[in-house]
Amino acid sequence: DTTVKQNPRYKLARVGKPVNLICSQTMNHDTMYWYQKKPNQAPKLLLFYYDKILNREADTFEKFQSSRPNNSFCSLYIGSAGLEYSAMYLCASSRRDNQDTQYFGPGTRLLVL
Amino acid sequence: GEQVEQRPPHLSVREGDSAVITCTYTDPNSYYFFWYKQEPGASLQLLMKVFSSTEINEGQGFTVLLNKKDKRLSLNLTAAHPGDSAAYFCAVKTGANTGKLTFGHGTILRVHP
After folding, report:
1. Mutate which: A100, A103, A108, A109, vs B, most B CBs within 10 A
2. 3-state SS, residue B93
3. Tag placement on chain A: N or C end, fewer CB within 10 Å?
4. How many helices and strands (H and E) does chain B possess?
């Protein structure tokens, strides 16, 4: 099973409110990633967990948090949503011994009003 | 950092025609290359991964060509059919110790009967 699950599939949030997105996989992958995708733009890596180590991209460092309570789950947390956070959020996972081939979830579409 | 340019952004072909999508990248240290297909409402699905030592890979109905000298990666659908209609993304991996992928902006392919 190469399925990556994401919940919810759609999320409506108010400006200034927190948002928490969930991702899960049962492939025992050591690395989990979060990407942001806006229309007509490339998926942009926000952060990734290698095992229990969190790596956040420099240009989005302060905007997103994440937690990985166990190997299967990873969350993406926005403390105070702004209009610019409206996007599709893609979760992916991979295993180091498989050349880091990333398997993607269906995404969560976030709309901030 | 790595930059990936993907062209064309939109492509419309007739059934049975070929369709070519091209990506160029900037970092000569990049060494894993991926093509993903995304159908509407679905996850990005891995089509093919290509390593630096491979120049041509053939899949089911498509060919991937890697030209390291020109830093160019292409996907050629040899006889497109309506089921190939989707968004296609190239991705490039740079750096041995991270799974970080840099994506192209994507190509929306429409295959008309």
Report:
1. A100
2. strand
3. N
4. 0, 11
| HSE-up (13 A, CA, CB side) for residue A83 | 1
> Do A101 and B36 lie within an 8 Å CB cutoff?
no
Within 3-32 of A, beta carbons closer than 8 Å to B belong to: 4, 31
Query: CB distance from B105 to chain A under 8 Å?
Result: yes
- At B38-59, the pLDDT tens digits run 998 889 999 988 886 556 667 7
For an interface test with A, the pick among B5, B31, B44, B49 (most A C-beta atoms closer than 10 Å) comes out as: B44
